[in-house]
Every structure is written in structure tokens, then in C-alpha cells.
Design a protein that fits this description.
Blueprint (H helix, E strand, L loop, with lengths): L13 H12 L3 H8 L3 H9 L5 H11 L4 H11 L5 H7 L15 H12 L5 H8 L3 H11 L6
Amino acid sequence: MKTANKFDFKDIHIGELICKRVEECDIDLSRISNFFKCTDEEIQQMFRDRDMKAETIMKWSKLLGYDFFRIYSQHLILYAPQANTRLSAANEKETQLPKFRKNIYTIGIINFLIELIETGEKTKLQVVNEYNIPKTTLYKWLDKYGKNKGI
């Protein structure tokens, strides 16, 4: 079973992550500069930037074949407080924006949470409270994927 990389979704430094992906893909800096129509130093600055415009992240995602936005989505799944569904349904206004289900947990997130429990880093109750995971969901994950069952 391959264990998921430990990643701190609380502390996202997008420039460092992009730099790691560039190294993994072994892409020449001059190719990147041509793609972005900027200098090598400007590319190096992007690697040092903790935050970037969405348009720039989109370009990096296309160039490197990796969805960097998903990192932010995982942060929201783990750390954004869940709205009270009765209150939000009553106050919900019509929107032109697309609607998404909030609680879609990826394999990586499930592995991450199970690993926290199995290593003793957090208790089940801590995971339930800190990450707003329903108890029943957590216990189903543990039963299905915990202790050498792997995903």
C-alpha cells in the first residue's frame, strides 16, 4: 500500500508547490519563460510567491498537467466550517454560479485523516471536531480503509 504524502493543507505556499512540480516534470526554465512571456527572474519570483492570481495558477495547471486549485478545495473541505443546512436553505438566494457538493472527500484526504488517527497524532473525536467529519462517516472510513486495508 502506498501511503499518502503528508501535506499540511493549512499552510499552502503555491509557489513552492509549483516549483516542486516543475522539478518533477523536468521542464526547462526557458520553455516556462516563453510560455508565460516573462523573464527567468520573474519565474523564480513566482516560485517564491505564497499567493498568485487565479489566472496565473490556471496557466501553471495547464503547463504542468496538475490541478493546483484542488489543493485549495481540499483546504476548504478540511477547514471551512459547515453551514447549518436549515439556516442556509432558508437564507439561500438564487445564484448564477454553479453549485457544488461541499463534502466530497478525496482518497488523499481520507488517507490523511485515517493516518492521523492510526499514528496517534489525533483521536477520532479530535478529527470529528477539527475537520467537521460526521462520526458515522469517519467510522465507515476506518472500517473500510483503516489498518492495512488501503485505498
